[in-house]
Amino acid sequence: MTETLTDARVVRAIELIWREAALLDAKDYEAWQRLYTEDALYVIPIDRDAEDFDDVLNMVHDDARMRALRVRRMTEGYAIAAVDSAITVRTVSRFVPADVGDGSVSIKASQIIVAYKRGRHDLWAADVDYVVRLGAGGEEDRLARKVVRLVDADEAVPAAGFLL
């Protein structure tokens, strides 16, 4: 792998990932879902080694329809996930380009989320695999895949009330 973090395509991918983190911390879920391609997947597997998410149990396995439903639950009406949601601050770092091309960038990163709710701080740590589809001809870059591999995914994980 000769691409580095200074490769313009990798920089674009990282900037999109950071923008996503900022939108999630701001609870701007409508803008968040617009960052995704129509065919994108957002997955939180229980098995950290899983690759075929259709045949295993996942905490989240969202296509565009499911992402839209999740956003609706987080933003409309009285939903405990929205009304009593945590304040979050997340850091996404340790970027390692896995596959870099003119049309897309696959990149691995770490994510730490500190969530504050009801006088208590919780820590969520994960390895995250992203595929960023690079826009061409004035199109914006978009997330084509995000797989959040929680470090404690095989343990009892509490309801988050926010998106990872």
Overview in brief:
This protein is of the alpha+beta class and 164 residues long.
Question: How does this model look, in words?
Answer:
With 164 residues, this protein is of the alpha+beta class. It has one domain (8-150): Nuclear Transport Factor 2, Chain: A, CATH 3.10.450.50. It has helices at residues 8-25, 29-34, 64-75, 80-83; strands spanning 36-45, 58-62, 87-100, 104-117, 120-133, 142-150. A 6-stranded mixed beta sheet has the order 2-1-6-5-4-3. A hairpin with a 3-residue loop joins strand 3 and strand 4. The longest helix has 18 residues, at 8-25.
Count every beta strand, where a strand is a DSSP E run of 2 or more residues: 6
* Content-based structural category: alpha+beta
Q: What is the CATH architecture term?
A: Roll
Mean pLDDT: 91
Largest pleated sheet:
6 strands, mixed
Write down the Rg. Answer: 16 Å
Please state roughly what percent of the residues sit in beta strands, choosing from under 5%, 5-15%, 15-25%, 25-35%, 35-45% or over 45%: 35-45%
**What is the CATH class designation?**
Alpha Beta
| CATH domain fold name | Nuclear Transport Factor 2, Chain: A
Q: For the largest beta sheet, what order do the strands appear in spatially? A: 2-1-6-5-4-3
